[in-house]
Every structure is written in structure tokens, then in C-alpha cells.
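Chapter review: from sequence to fold.
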Amino acid sequence: MPVLANDDAFGYHAPNWWGSRVMIFVEGAAFAILTATYFYIWWNFGSWPPPRTHLPDLGVPSINLLVLTVSAAPFWNATRLARRHERRVVVGAWLTLGALFGVAAIVLRVLEFSALHTHFGSDPYGSITWTILAVHLAHLLAGTLQTLLIALVMFVGPVEEKHYADVGVVAVYWYFIVISWVALYAIVFIAPRLL
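The C-alpha cell string follows.
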């Protein structure tokens, strides 16, 4: 029977809990600024996207939305197992699965840039849409790398209490990546069709 982890390591008393929440708040503010910039630029154009720019494709971005949404499941399971101090290799396997979803999302993100039908320097529309995708790509890269590193610790060891708590921190950051992409997908790919 697995031993339940010390809830203080996973709760709001832990410094890494606060650190991850503050970082998510700051990064969320950056996404809010990008969103405000997007709508500010849109407000100053008569049509959106600008003339001679096609609406962005939905194919690859929608697949990526699905991949990212499903990717939350391995992180949820890894956190659940980490809280119970399950075997470290099992926790590492779930994290590796989550990281594989991250790699798939990164590959799809690279393909999404062409779905915008514009280039970074073509006009303000191109600049803001490329910036939104690029900033989120940076989060995907950071989250995937962080997940791989924690998975490696779980496989190689030695594993301490703090490493189990790190699984929860990585998962919360990944949830932020997923939730922010749901909103940004709606803004960049759906809103121009509806508004």
C-alpha cells in the first residue's frame, strides 16, 4: 500500500507552490497583454485579418488543441501517483507520456505558423499572431523540457520528497499551458470568423 505524501509539500505552505503560482500569474499577465494588443490592433483595422490576408486555417491548430487538451491527463495521473508516493518509475513513465504530448504539440505548433497565412513582418496582424504563437511555443518548450528533466530524475534517482512535489508543480504549469492555449486558440483562430 503506498504511503500518502506529506500534504505540506503539495500545498500552499510549500515555497514551490507559491513560486509556481506567481510565475503563472506573471506569464498569464503577459498573455493578457498580448491579447489586449491583438484586439487593439484589430480595432484599428477596417477588416480582420487585413485585406489580402486569408483567414487562418483551422486544421493543424484544431489538432494541436486536441493534443494539448488530452495531454493534461498524464500530468493529472502523474500527480495523483506522486501524492501517494507510488513507484518512481511509474510516475516517470506518466511524465514521459506527458512530455511526448509536449513534443507533438511543439511539432504541430511549428506547422501552425503557416496556417496563419501571414508572416511576422508583413503587417501588424502578422506580427501579433506570430508573437502569440511564438510566446506560447516558448512555454511549450519550457514545460516539455522541465517535464523531461523531472521524469529523468524519477527514472535515475535518487528520489526525495521534494521530487514528488515537483511533479505537482510541473503539472500545474502544464495545465496553465493547456488552458492558455484554449483561450489563445479561440482568439487567433476562431474570433476572426465570428466577430
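Two observations follow directly from the output. Residues 1-5 have pLDDT under 50 and may be disordered. The first helix runs from residue 7 to 10.
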